[in-house]
Every structure is written in C-alpha cells, then in structure tokens.
C-alpha cells in the first residue's frame, strides 16, 4: 500500500494519481464490505436460502446454472440492443424530419407523445395480438420505450444550434443538407448522447417488463422468464443469480454508453471536460 | 484638423437621393426595417459605401447599427427600400457572389471542429475540397498569426485568438467587403487595441472595404476613414463624417497618445452627443 501511495505522490500532479486511486478503491472497498456484511448476516442468523441466499451461494448458483442463464441472457441482450439501435435510428431520423418542417412536427409529435405516456405494460397485450412472434413483440415494446427520450433530446439538440452559426451558414449559401450534416447534427451530438444514456438503460428495463407482460415461456425466453420461473419454484438463489446478471448488464450498458459519450465529446464539449481553476 | 471633419446633417434632415456612383461597393436606398413586434429598427437609411473605405457605424445600443449591417449581409430583408450592389455579380440567391465576409459579435466558431476546419468552412460550403483549399486556409490563418494553431480546438484558445480565427474565416474567401459587428466588444482593452491594429493592417494590405459596427468612440476614431453616427428610436444616420484615412496608424506607436488622435476623438464624441439629442426625422 505504501509503495502505491509513494508512486502516486511522486507523480507530476500528486493529487491526480491519488484521486484516481480513490475513485476505484472507495467503491470497490464499499462493495466488498456490503457483500461481507450480507454473508456474515446470513451465516450468523442461519437465514434459509429460500429467504435470502448468501452471496457465496449466489455465486455458486451463477456458475452451476450458467447453462440455463447464459442463453436467456443472450436473448435479453439481443432484444435490448436491437431495440436500442432501432430507437437510435428511428429517434434521430424522426427528429430530423420534425425540425425540417413545422407541418411534420405538428402532425407527428402528438403520436410520439401518446406512445410515450401510455404505460408500456398496457400496450404489450395488444402488440402481442398483432405480432405473431413473442420476441418481436417484446422488442417492439422495448423500442417504444427507448425511442422517446432519444427523439425528444434530438429535437431539442437540433433546435439549440447557435443562431449566429445558422446565420453564418446562410451567409455562405449553405444548402439544407450541408446545414444539417455539418452544423445541426454535430451540434446536437451532446443531446444525442444524453438520449443514448437514458435510452440504453430504458431499453433493458423495457425488455424485462415486456417479457413479464408477454408471459413468454420456454427455451427461447429471456432472463425475465428465468427470473419468474425461479420464483415459482422457490429457487431463490437462481432468482438472485438472474438478478445479478440483469444488474451487471445494466451497469455494462451504462458504462458503455458513458464511454461512447466521453469519446465523442472529449475534445470540445464542457460535459466531457474536467474543470480547472 | 477640424476642416477635415465635415459633419453631415446633424439636424436629421433627409439627405437628397443620389444615384449610386460606380465606385460604390454597396448602396442603401431608403432602407427601413420594422420588426414583427412593431419596433422601427431602422428608418430610411441611405448610404453609399465606396470602395476602399473604412466605415464605422457608431451609435448607442438600439440605434439599428447591427440591423443595418445584417441587412447589408443579406441576413434580413429590409421592410422598405433597397440594397444595391453596383459593382458585383449577383448570384442565384440574390446575393453578391463571394463578396462578403462577416465577423459576428462573438467568435461564432464550431466547437467540435479544430481551427483549420473552422476557417475552411466558407470554402467547404462552396464545394471546395480540403486539399485544394489548404493553402488558402493556411494563408488566411497566417494573416492573423494563427498558423501554428491550425489543429487546436476553439476552447483551447483565448478570447482574442478565437476572434482572430473568426477574422481568418471571414477573409478566406477573399471578400471585397468585410462586415464586422462589434467584433471586439467583449475583449479586454489591450487585446482590443492589438486586434484594431491587425484589422487596419489587413484593410490596407488586402485593399478591403470595411463596415465596422461599434459603440466605442475611440475605436471608431482610430479605425475609420468615415463614420456614420446613428441615433436611436428610430434608428437612423444622424451625421456622416469624413475623416483622414487611417493608413499606417498601426505602425505608429505614438498615434494613440498623439494630439491628432485626441482631436479626432473629441470631434467624433461631439457628433455622438449631438446625435443623441437630435430630433427624430419625419420617418418616425
């Protein structure tokens, strides 16, 4: 430990190395302590595993049931990411159309709002009636949920372009296409990234909720089915293992979208820059 | 010194309409601008801007000087009157071809693009390739002393340097007319003086015609060969002063403390004071 601290303080900027170390160490230690307290609590009180399994048991179950859980995880991941990608494309394209023409905005925006404010669980049965494949129906639900934050952020972003820059483009006779490609889309990038971060989390949530609503079952089902199944069978360790996988997926999506946002904005946008005073 | 300063029409009388002289780069005829909220921003402004002039539009805020500049640039249409370009080819969009450079109050750079790409923008919008434009962009950056910062991002530059990028961008198309809308208002006095010198140097080197909006008497007196003093409510030209041409001042370190400059500032100040108390014309 001392060696680590020494090397950190001999750095050119001593504060930086230490703060980076703390950034990793504090949450890691905190997580370790939480798991330890949980383990100790379960063991000391002899809590039965069908009430609360110890973390060690959850870990064992995760390994033991990997053959069942892994395919389910893949299904959930596939639904989540295809829904997110469709929502990114759909949200961006519709946002561009909406800001290009006042008429299109007046005509289409209400539908986007209605789709957003209606609870997804309530639409799911209807979608299941119309779409023959359960997986496709779940994906449509996840898409609908992830779509709106991306759309509304992009609309906001495309409308927030500096007016003087718009004037400048007008002055040099830029075409609408040039204005969109060279000015509006890059200017909206920070907003797009916000939409991506929100939409990424929501598409996972929606993929799980929609699977509950669809009541899908059998071999081709996702993690939500495995979760329900474990509950019916009182296989609480497996329920926890499925839950751990879902949380890990959520964290991974958050980390991935944050990294993408940082990489694309780090050279110029305030949100990706450290403040120096 | 005084006799060189010919005051125009301080009582606000209408100037007699004159035909656009062939040496005019742009001429405004009875240009009136009323905004949609009813404000009369500009009332019957008539002015010929001749080739090689350095014209300052000087006046208090709300006198329509920026509005006039924007109308010249084609960014807003006059409600009445017309803007004529006697010496230019007119493009399909009704604007003179590649003849205008515009510098805004703020640097107005794209923060996601490095300096080079920002200065390259006007050429890119005209359909020029990056390789083809490289020499011209670098030359423009060199004239403002930023050759070594081509790869930097705007946020890495100081306020004065950002403004220089903005000037380089305006110059990259080799415009005949450079329009500047209070470009240095937000800069500190020292940077501002330096940039004023740069603008004077570019004006004489590149044989530019400049229209410069400012509310600083000292800046206007330092830079201009002609000052149009404007009054507010409604915005109009109250006095049109011809001054001695400012060539070479940027090389004369003593000019800013000279008696000549003091006299100039005094007479411009007096014109501005009388402009503020001038009665509004019938155009109101």
UniProtKB/TrEMBL annotation, chain B:
Signal peptide: none annotated. Gene3D superfamilies: P-loop containing nucleotide triphosphate hydrolases (3.40.50.300). CDD domains: ABC_NrtD_SsuB_transporters. One of its GO terms (molecular function) is ATP hydrolysis activity. SMART domains: AAA. Keywords: ATP-binding, Nucleotide-binding, Transport. Residues 1-22 are annotated as: Disordered. Pfam families: ABC_tran. The keyword ATP-binding applies. Residues 26-257 form the ABC transporter domain. Belongs to the ABC transporter superfamily. This is ABC transporter ATP-binding protein. The lineage of its organism: Bacteria, Pseudomonadati, Pseudomonadota, Alphaproteobacteria, Hyphomicrobiales.
